[in-house]
Amino acid sequence: MYHTYVNDLFTYGLYLGFDKESVKDAIHDVFLKLAANRNFLNKADNIKFYLFSSLKNRLIDTHKNRKEHVTLKTTDANLEIPFNMIINLEELLIEREEKLQIKNEIEQMLETLTPRQREIIYLRYIHEYDYKQISQLLQISVHGCRKLVSKAIMSLREKFDSKC
Q1: What is the mean pLDDT of residues 86-92?
Q2: What is the Cα–Cα distance from 154 to 137, expressed in whole angstroms?
Q3: Does residue 69 come out as left (phi exceeding 0), alpha (psi in the -120 to 50 range) or beta?
Q4: Is the pTM of this model over 0.70?
Q5: How many Å apart are CA 11 and CA 60, to the nearest integer?
Q6: Mean pLDDT value across residues 80-86
Q7: Do the Cβ atoms of 145 and 131 come closer than 8 Å?
Q8: For the chain, what are the domain ranges?
Q9: Residue range 42-65, pLDDT digits in tens
Q10: At what angle do helices 131-138 and 47-66 cross, to 10 degrees?
Q11: CATH of 89-164, one of 1.10.287.380, 3.40.640.10, 2.60.40.1180, 1.10.10.10
């Protein structure tokens, strides 16, 4: 299970704005917790979602204890984490100039979104989580998830309609 999910977990932790070592430590902690109590897995409907949620919670807990690097803002009892999403294309595609240009355009488009919008687009379209799972992970309502995705897409269409 570790080998199946470690790369996705690592990438997600980095996108949340945490440094590599903190993310590695948090992933290690999550899997140690699972090894110590395997009952957690029996309760999880979606193991990948459970791991993402556990990793995010562990990183936030670690940050609260350290109070360094990532600036977290509290709004409506939710933590606002800067979600820095960078589209990573395979090395073979990056070598091609046309693919590099597309990558740069997508990154520029995503940079126009708020950190929360980038995070929700990442979870919905890269990891294909449903709205209920995303709402649990982001601690917002399902309706709020749908609205946030809709606003992000509408914002992209308004700004970049000629490119879409």
Answers
A1: 50
A2: 23
A3: left
A4: no
A5: 16
A6: 62
A7: yes
A8: 1-82, 89-164
A9: 777 788 888 999 999 999 888 888
A10: 20
A11: 1.10.10.10
